[in-house]
Design a protein that fits this description.
The complex is a heterodimer of chains A (408) and B (256).
Chain A: E1 3-9, E2 13-21, E3 26-30, E4 42-43, E5 45-48, E6 54-56, H1 57-65, E7 69-72, H2 74-79, E8 83-86, E9 89-92, H3 93-106, E10 117-124, H4 129-138, H5 140-144, E11 148-153, H6 154-163, E12 173-179, E13 183-192, E14 198-208, H7 214-225, E15 230-236, H8 247-252, E16 258-262, H9 265-279, H10 282-285, E17 287-290, E18 297-305, E19 308-315, E20 325-331, E21 337-344, E22 350-356, E23 369-378, E24 381-388, E25 401-407
Parallel strand pairs in A: 1-10, 10-11, 12-15, 14-17, 15-16
Antiparallel strand pairs in A: 1-2, 2-3, 2-4, 5-6, 5-7, 8-9, 12-13, 13-14, 18-19, 18-21, 20-23, 21-22, 23-24, 24-25
Chain B: E1 2-3, E2 14-16, E3 21-23, H1 26-35, H2 47-55, H3 60-69, H4 73-82, H5 89-100, H6 107-120, H7 124-140, H8 147-162, H9 166-176, H10 179-189, H11 192-202, H12 206-216, H13 220-231, H14 235-255
Antiparallel strand pairs in B: 2-3
The chains are: A alpha+beta (408), B mainly alpha (256).
């Protein structure tokens, strides 16, 4: 059974964790920056020394003190497609980010050899099309090395983390406060039991808090928790460090709430996600997680098979929009129409969206083979591409393509 | 409504030599069978087609059913077209009607039909071969009185004309009794001297001769072009030549 790596990547820092088998179960451990240390946060930076040698992370910071050129914000620069000229050489930020991810992932080899790693789950705070594409490009080597990888958002990491703790802690809602010193981001994980399977969802709210002030945070906590029955509260982020929490902690511990503080919740959550992907998790079998990044409708097509109308699914509700890929091939009918069925997962409302292929050459019925490829531009927009494949040597493809965007 | 493909789409192509057509999917095979029903013969029921259906289309059931129907073309086609309700029974009966009734199962009719297909697809050489073969068969079977024979000769004549084989074309048109075309082709096939000799000897119908004369005289455009090229040897002259050549070719085809 291969190992799983969880990887929390932001523009400033990253954290790595790995699943390690113990006697009774698989435990997720954060990977320290140096063996024996308790430093887990690695700066997202690269340094190019005068000889052209590139170092990453903490080594990059040290190298920059010896005259190397320090390059920061690798993620945002890669997203913007920027380059940097150092000592006459041009460096592509995507390649630097790729090198950084490779270097930091390989840090886990002190715990387990890289050859035993099966999958990597990367979690990021902001899931946008550009961010996802940049990370996919930079992390393409992971699949080249025979591992699989996927990207999840922070809410999903939180969900996996919470669901892999003591079941007592998820009896009611679970709260998370993440503070970076400027903004407190709260997430409230709750389960809707009126559906089968149950729906696990996250309610997110952001509060500006420029000062590390106990009373201010108490107000924030009250606003989030007062009206809720919460079993566990997690405090995450460096903002909570420094021992400034006082009355707010007392409040958090009220009503038998259990409170935990740490900085590696997201990376561990990502690692749990990978482990659950690999092994399955009985706790999660009866529930399904939805957040803003999830597709909330089932997308498919009706077509004729053996004279009967059948439904062919293309995209299933519950997947992350940036992972959504579907395709199928079929023959067009007389009307040259493709009717996409969109069924809301929550309300079960059904509507159809028609893709027209009028630009394709006129041919007899069932003599135009087409390939439909669907992906998503964001959580509410499906991108459909229909390719004319022709009809063998009888009617050659003209290479036509019909493209349409369908809003859910 | 859209249709789910039946079976796999093959990377390889199965060529039905007798129809000069290749197929890669079950649907393409069915299309060829329905469109070319009158051209079909026992050649369709080859073992390698059945193996192709089994291995390349991944349709084991169909291959086994086709194996069972081998030997009876009608049954073979019915098995194929009815597979997984590809076509309704009524449609299949309609398509197979000609075939099962015997329709026009005469070999030369099939060959002519196949030749027509090639002609439509601008494959004139195999079309000529097929027409010639059918002509031989019709002559062997003394079917020259059949109106189809004359139609065949006209078709052959036209194809020969396209290859500038005017003597052969004239012979075909002559046998078909098309005087005008015969005369036209003969004139094109002859030198001026031979033509004058022929006119003196045969003294053909004056109106027809005048008509053919009109059709074969040097077009005004050619005369103008000759003048233009004489005065101007630039690229514009070449372009004009090409344009004129194209229009003359088109006019020639219209005549034929």
């Amino acid at each position: 059974m291969g190992r799983v790596i969880g990887y929390d990547l932001t523009d400033l820092s990253c954290q790595v964790s790995i699943g390690v088998e113990t006697e009774d179960k698989e435990e997720v451990r954060s990977v320290a920056l140096f063996v024996g240390s308790e430093k887990y946060v690695i700066p997202v930076a690269a340094c190019i020394d005068p000889e052209g040698e590139i170092s990453y992370g903490e080594e990059a910071v040290s190298a920059s003190e010896k005259g190397g050129k320090l390059l920061k914000n690798l993620l945002s620069n890669a997203v913007a497609g920027r380059h940097e000229e150092v000592n006459g050489e041009v460096y592509d930020y995507t390649e630097l980010l790729s090198g950084y991810i490779r270097r930091t992932i390989h840090m886990s080899s002190v715990i387990s050899p890289m050859s035993s790693v099966e999958r990597v789950v990367i979690t990021m705070p902001d899931i946008t099309e550009d961010n996802v594409k940049a990370v996919e490009r930079a992390a393409a080597f992971i699949e080249d090395e025979g591992m699989t990888f996927r990207i999840i958002g922070y809410p999903e990491s939180f969900f996996y983390y919470a669901m892999n703790q003591d079941p007592e802690l998820t009896k009611n809602k679970v709260a998370l406060f993440d503070y970076d010193g400027e903004v407190v981001r709260s997430m409230l994980l709750y389960t809707r039991v009126d559906t089968r399977p149950h729906l696990c969802m996250v309610e997110r709210r952001d509060f500006d808090m420029k000062m590390k002030d106990d009373m201010c945070f108490l107000e924030v906590a009250r606003e989030v928790l007062d009206a809720e029955i919460v079993s566990a509260v997690y405090l995450s982020g460096e903002g909570f460090e420094g021992g400034w929490l006082g009355k707010s902690v007392s409040y958090l511990c009220e009503r038998r709430r259990r409170v935990f503080q740490g900085r590696n919740l997201y990376t561990k959550g990502a690692c749990y996600a990978g482990i659950d992907d690999r092994d399955g998790n009985p706790t999660l079998e009866s529930c399904r997680f939805f957040d803003d990044e999830k597709l909330v409708s089932n997308i498919g097509l009706h077509m004729l098979r053996d004279g009967q109308e059948i439904y062919v699914p293309l995209l299933e509700a519950g997947i992350n929009w940036y992972d959504a890929r579907g395709k199928c091939e079929f023959y067009l009918g007389e009307d040259k129409e493709i009717r996409l069925k969109i069924e809301s997962y929550f309300t079960k409302d059904v509507r159809y969206s028609v893709l027209r292929c009028d630009s394709f050459p006129g041919r007899p019925v069932r003599c135009t083979r087409v390939r439909l490829e669907v992906s998503m531009k964001d959580a509410s927009c499906i991108l459909c591409k229909v390719y004319d494949l022709g009809f063998g040597d009888i009617y050659r493809s003209a290479g036509d393509t019909a493209v349409a965007e369908v809003l859910i | 409504m859209i249709y789910e493909p039946i079976g796999a789409y093959s990377k390889n192509i199965y060529v039905i030599q007798e129809l000069s057509v290749g197929v890669r999917s079950f649907e393409e095979l069915c299309f060829v069978v329905t469109e070319r029903i009158y051209d079909l013969g026992d050649f369709l029921m080859k073992e390698d087609l059945i193996l192709f259906v089994r291995d390349e289309f991944a349709l084991k059931d169909l291959a086994s059913d086709l194996e069972g129907a081998k030997g009876d073309l009608g049954a073979f086609i019915k098995v194929l077209l009815s597979f997984r309700h590809f076509m309704s029974e009524d449609s299949i009966d309609e398509i197979c009607k000609g075939l099962l009734d015997g329709g026009d199962s005469r070999e030369y009719v099939r060959l002519i039909s196949r030749g027509d297909f090639f002609t439509e697809n601008k494959k004139y050489r195999p079309a000529i071969l097929l027409y010639e073969h059918s002509r031989e068969l019709m002559e062997e079977e003394s079917e020259t009185e059949d109106p189809l024979y004359n139609e065949l000769l006209i078709k052959l004549g036209k194809l020969y004309s396209l290859y500038f084989l005017f003597e052969k074309a004239a012979e075909c048109f002559s046998l078909a009794g098309d005087e005008k075309r015969t005369f036209f082709c003969r004139k094109l096939a002859m030198s001026r001297v031979d033509y004058v000799e022929m006119m003196l000897k045969e003294q053909p119908d004056e109106t027809l001769a005048a008509e053919v004369e009109e059709m074969t005289k040097e077009p005004l455009e050619i005369a103008e072009l000759k003048q233009k090229i004489k005065n101007d040897k630039s690229y514009g002259g070449k372009l004009a030549t090409e344009r004129l050549g194209n229009s003359l070719r088109a006019a020639y085809r219209r005549i034929m």
